Amino acid sequence: MEKDPLTDSERKLCDTLKVLKVAVVAEIQQNAKRLENESYVERMVMRLVINQFKTAQKIDINTTDVRRINSSIVKEYRNEYNGNVA
Fold it and tell me: Where in 1-86 does DSSP place strands (E)?
């Protein structure tokens, strides 16, 4: 049985996460050494998450979800930077 196509809200979420990933990569590519400063990276990614969800896409997102998304992104990039790729 085939899954129904994405709903509008699911599609908007996927698009938002794609744009967010591009923004994070662009910031990191400017200076990969930034990844050495975990608190800086957390603040930078938090700013990007809030900007993308609340400002650009007008998606109502709570603080817990913002922190969860932020934590996942920071963890992924820090692991990659430290050579801990799954």
Answer: none
| Position 24 confidence tier, pLDDT thresholds 50, 70, 90 | very high
d(CA 69, CA 20): 10
Q: How far apart, in whole angstroms, are the C-alpha atoms of residue 37 and residue 2?
A: 45
Give the CB-side neighbour count of residue 13, counting CA atoms within 13 A. 10
Query: If residue 78 lies in a helix (H) or strand (E), which one and from where to where?
Result: helix 63-81
* Rounded Cα distance, 62 and 64, in Å: 6
Q: And the tokens for 62?
A: 């709570």
pTM of this structure: 0.84
